[in-house]
Sequence to fold (336 residues):
Amino acid sequence: MTSLPQSAQPLVDPQGRTIRYLRISVTDRCDLRCRYCMAEQMTFLPRAALLSLDEIAIIAERFIARGVTKIRLSGGEPLVRRDVGDLVRRLGRHVGTGLDELTMTTNATRLESYAGAMVDAGIRRINVSLDSLDADRFRYITRHGDLDQVLRGIAAARAAGLAVKINMVALAGLNEDEIPAMLRWCVDEGHDLSLIETMPLGAIDEDRTDRFVPLTRVLADLQTQFALTRDSHRTGGPARYWRVGDSKTRLGLISPLTANFCDGCNRVRLTTEGKLYLCLGHDDQVDLKAALRDGGIEGLDAAIDIGLSRKPARHDFRIASGAAPAVARHMSVTGG
Fold:
């Protein structure tokens, strides 16, 4: 059997997992400062260090040509990048011709203005990070966020025809008591809900041990209040789903610490400065920006292959009092 040319080789890692999912951080900047994600005083990358819009598109299109079928745009907050609409339109042209889905994770602070354009560009589903429905608590968690602004953005998204999934990080002492109410609200509004265990990424201003909530405990509590039935639905990500009663809402659990999901990992992450990270919990990366600028498409393909050869079997996340983060970089650098 004749082997495929290098540029057409499928994306398979040393564990035999086929990579179908690329997450792209279009910016490390954000207009919020969520306590579990960032320090209050952040130093962001200089704009000159970022990939250009065209470079992001070229890299994304190369992954599509090599078998990636889903792309998620994230940040930071992707909608703070002024040219992100141009990127969405360019990548949206590939939906249905190689790309099955283009999605975005956003904090929804700017969604009211962008929702219609996102639908026009080919996005049909978004994730919205929302950790509380209490305005004061939301402001505390985000340090200065306006809940009404976010809710208007979510309403605009639904009005434009976007399916909305709410992402909620479970935080002891901050919002754990609000999880049942959030699920009821999602059922009433027709949203899916994904609950996420806090991950040890980057130095923040608090000890994550104090905020860690095992989702095994959360699920046990929710099962006393809701009729939850295991659902085989998959979106390409790490969540495992339950159907909530006879509603259209699905409850997803993303449990990197209590229910490791690495065996089925099908994703890699591109940072806004062009580094390809093979795992959230490891620092191994390859510089696709340098590879593209120095070697064009051939150099890009070679760098992607080198990166895939380094993809580890699993992450090294752990939560322990006083323990250093698994990696020094913040989630906003790697992308959600």
